[in-house]
Write a structure and sequence with these properties.
elongated; Beta Polymerase, domain 2; two-stranded antiparallel ribbon
Length: 413
């Protein structure tokens, strides 16, 4: 592409138009990824005129397709399997406000341009630029700090317009980078006040607690190293939101956050409605992982009973692997000895889970006997007694008193 870019540079100089390469081609080049197949050329002037001049340098005869969009001031054609699009300086080109570009001007050819050129009133561009910085992990924070100083004037647009960029920050290779910028610029306190409240730090009687906000960002990064799941990363971001409410100092004990998992799970539906997130299966999944986020850690002992492990398998079901990924990511202690001890005990619980699951198949577990079968066995009419018996059978199976098998349950009545 170097030869091709050189011809663009020469053509741009002939018509006195500043020109640069923008978009995903630049990103993929910086990250040494597979070079993107679409190349966007931004020019201060007529994109169509520049495209025509470059096209004529390569193709004297109309053997290639040249497409022109006069309404938008753009034109495109293909070269060596890549689609080249020339974009003119137009008010309609809002989405091409990128922070990184490569200059094709003769006086600074090949120079990497890293400027945001956005105002505090352009919320869409600010959040998109933060998302962009998070995706490529490459930017100067000076421009973001200038936004931070003006954050009092920030007005968040309808959530539908920015949630896609927020999700892309969560899905980036280093989510904490973008989330930290969102926090510094004041956006996070508007979008996710439940998360920023974790930044509150208190000390009493010489006792303090860890920075739960920094811990949360570290957990999100840890999960991102193991999983590309958007919603598991959201679990990591939201798993401690109940701590700011349940936080309590007890003399002689220190800081406690009793039952923060359950409270956090109950807060999540309100958060999902506010962010216009999908409900039903997605909401159930996030709530479930948050609710049981500390359960495997509580089982980290050689005395963990099969009954307790069966119940965890039963309630978490098919999402047990995701829960285990999260729980490993949640171990962020900097004490190497303690971390190794937690990991070793956790691996023991993981083996027990897998062993019991293989033996009894509690994942996606259906009750081995139906309500109709209970009515036939006990000669009952439909009533609340059916539910009581069914629950008793389920509890007996989870306690290991009955095998998870219809024949065994039937002949044990």
């Amino acid at each position: 592409m170097n030869s091709f870019f050189h011809h663009i540079s020469v053509s741009a100089k002939e018509i006195s138009q500043d020109t640069c390469v923008i978009g995903k081609y630049v990103i993929s080049s910086l990250l040494n990824r597979n070079i993107y197949q679409y190349v966007d050329i931004l020019t201060e002037g007529s994109g169509i005129l520049l495209a025509q001049k470059v096209f004529k340098k390569f193709y004297q005869y109309p053997t290639r397709i040249f497409t022109c969009f006069k309404r938008f001031g753009t034109a495109r054609f293909k070269n060596n399997g890549k689609q080249i699009e020339f974009i003119g300086d137009s008010d309609t080109i809002v989405e091409y406000v990128y922070s990184i570009a490569i200059s094709l001007n003769v006086n600074n050819y090949g120079l990497l341009i890293d400027h945001l050129n956005i105002s505090s009133e352009d919320t869409f561009s600010m959040i998109r630029s933060i998302r962009f910085a998070s995706e490529v992990y490459f930017t100067s924070k000076i421009s973001f700090y200038s936004i931070f100083e003006q954050r009092k004037s920030i007005i968040i647009p309808p959530i539908e317009g920015i949630i896609n960029d927020l999700n892309k920050i969560i899905l980036s290779p280093n989510p904490s980078f973008g989330l930290s910028i969102l926090y510094e610029t004041g956006f996070l306190s508007i979008l996710l006040p439940e998360v920023t409240l974790l930044k509150e730090f208190e000390e009493k009687e010489g006792s303090n607690h860890k920075d739960n906000f920094s811990h949360t960002l570290e957990v999100v990064d840890n999960v991102s190293e193991e999983s590309n799941s958007l919603w598991l990363r959201w679990v990591a971001l939201l798993h401690d939101i109940g701590k700011s409410i349940t936080k309590k100092y007890i003399h002689g004990t220190g800081w406690t956050f009793y039952a923060h998992e359950g409270l956090g799970a109950r807060i999540i539906p309100y958060l999902f409605h506010r962010l216009k997130f999908p409900l039903y299966n997605t909401l159930t999944y996030v709530q479930k992982i948050v609710k049981f986020s500390s359960r495997p850690i509580a089982l980290v002992s050689y005395e963990a009973t099969d009954s307790a492990i069966r119940r965890l398998l039963f309630y978490v079901g098919a999402d047990i692997e995701d829960l285990l990924i999260f729980c490993k990511a949640d171990i962020t202690t900097k004490n190497i000895e303690r971390k190794l001890r937690y990991m070793n005990h956790f691996l023991l619980v993981e083996r027990k889970l897998l062993k019991l699951d293989e033996k009894d198949s509690y994942r996606n577990w259906p009750t081995p006997i139906s309500g109709n079968e209970i009515m036939q066995i006990f000669q009952l009419q439909p009533s609340h007694q059916i539910g009581i018996i069914k629950k008793a059978i389920k509890e007996a199976i989870l306690d290991g008193k009955l095998a998870n098998d219809f024949t065994y349950v039937y002949y044990s009545n």
